[in-house]
Hints:
Mean pLDDT: 84
Bound molecules: zinc ion
Amino acid sequence: MTELPTCWWCGSTADSREHKFKAGELRASHGPEWRGEAAVVHGSFGGQQQDARGPKADELKWPPSMCEDCNNRRSQPFDRAQTGLTELYNLHMLDRRRQPIKAPLSPTGKTIRTYYSLTGPYAQAARAAARAKAARERQRRLKSSTGPDDQGTADPAEGQTATPAP
Ligand SMILES: [Zn+2]
């Protein structure tokens, strides 16, 4: 009897296979079935190419390396974060910078580290400018509210307390 590998995350039996690519993203980019004109080929590190029949094809999953619970439940927040980043990227609201780094445990000896930053009105510089503008406007309001015109114009409801009905 061959011994099953252990989950890299929690150490229990690795009885499930993780997707190499998110199934939802594959479905979004290639559709639900990949046959004929819509065929998709997957290349492995060994150089072989195989037809992948759909987003859940075995070729698109790693060998068992995680338990069912870690793969389906525990990794959910990370899957959702990746989905959000992909949505922002597809809306051109996100920049990605990819940097190859050494990864001794990877079959290729390297991996890609990805840096994300928001773009346009959500970019760091644009947000800093908006904060600076808001601070200037607040200062202007504070200065003008200390003038004689503003005295005695407080909201008449201010300071009143609700009286419960008898
Ligand atoms: Zn696990």
